[in-house]
Amino acid sequence: MAVRPEFDRNAQETMLLVAITRSSIPQLLRHHSSQQFSIAPGWLLTCVTDNFLFRLDVSDQEITGSESLMASSENRDHDVMFVAARFLRNHNTLQVSKHSVSGRPIYYCADTNGGFFLSTHIAMLRQAGIAIEEDPDVLPELLTYRVISPPRTLYRHVRQLQLAGQLVVRLKNDSWVVSDPHVGCDPEAATTARSEEEVVGEVAHVLNKSIAKLGSAVPRVATLLSGGVDSSILGTIARDRLSAFGTTSSALQERSAE
After folding, report:
1. What is the span of the domain harbouring residue 20?
2. Are 80 and 96 in a shared domain?
3. How far, CA to CA in Å, does 1 sit from each of 80, 136, 154?
4. Mean pLDDT in the chain?
């Protein structure tokens, strides 16, 4: 299978690229929104944003590229960052996070010189000089499920950040070390006073209460099961609350493509 990702011209308006390299990348600096910073002896940080949904904020302590609906606004008190790539100057550390409501793909990889690259577009990684090669090992998953589950992608040595995922990249022995991605925590979760048990309990209460209302509305309830987690949870609650014990399976014959 030949995979040749081309840069979507419509997608150019929304983009982020972060590159930590030993030398400048001229083809990236041609972007009008690109900025370059010296972050450590022998290392440069290059950031490219669209200045629309993605914006770059620079201070003495950190350099942050983030995506949000209010990115172009000065007042962002109630804003939610869908994606954030935050470089902490004093710690030589890049922290990347992806909110659980974000649908933006975040691809990342390292090069043979110890550098690190992150972007919303595969074509931007290629433009930065990363060799994009097909990974035949993922084809069985693609052909079976028609999707590749993160962190794997269609390309060798290129990974993708999962929903509610976090990634930490640190400078160690003059090279950038990528930590194992952490999944299951939104960026602002660390500042909330509510425990995980409280949040789970509240969600369970709302689901039980909503489903229980169906008992007085209809004489009989059926649940459509997709086989995923969401429908399985709803099916379990419907069984306990509404005595929906029966399960029926059916197969649909696919039409020929001819």
Report:
1. 10-190
2. yes
3. 39, 8, 11
4. 82
